[in-house]
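Consider a concrete sample entry:
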Amino acid sequence: MKRKFSKNYRVCAVVSCLLLANQWVSAHDAIKTGPVWEGTGGDNAIVIGHGCEAKEKPIQAQSVVFPTVNPELIASDGHTIANLSDIIGESLYAGQADLIQDKNIFQHQDEKHDALGNTIGFFSTNGNLQTNLQGRVPFQFATPNFTKTTCATALRIEVAVADVCILAAPTIRAAKVNLWIPDNGSQYSLLGKAQNVDGIGEPPVIHVKRNLVKNPPDASCGAGFTVTVRPSAADVDANLGIPGWHY
């Protein structure tokens, strides 16, 4: 005898699947607060979703890199953007972020700087994030302003993050690290994909919105476009590593 399933049962099953899918998405590393308005500053955080190898190993270290050295610029409408200054004036991401000291997870923290002393990222070591818990790594971020002449209405700022569970070489292994970084040809992404490391092509994103009331684009812009600002492969290779860990 065939069992008949009620409409309510089918609905519950669909809802359960959606909830499970949402839990999986939320397990990725992410940016805590967003979207944020142009020209504002405030506290935010890297959300750590889980440890290495499906929550089996705790996170001991983390490295974060913002797009600063020749970032990739991708317009949602497909046109080429030659210079970031055409979108956000002379403001660059170097110096836009500052790490906030917090020892809930990591006992040692420090910032990464370019040759001019501007902050381009940060790293944390001597940590122990329990495998059944989520983590928050706080930082302060100042959002840039859109130029008056650009038709851009939003930014997607991708941030490269490595969550390290084991520092010992060989380092790029699924059981040792999660790499929430762009899939754009860096040595980290190439080696990570070959080893089935979690996170390749899924970097956390800071969403920045243009204030269309105080800073409206020209009427000829129409709906405008969104700009993705992504750390270049060279930027990731040069700056994602931290003392005691590299690709």
Summary: Confidence is low (pLDDT under 50) at residues 1-26. The longest strand covers residues 119-127.
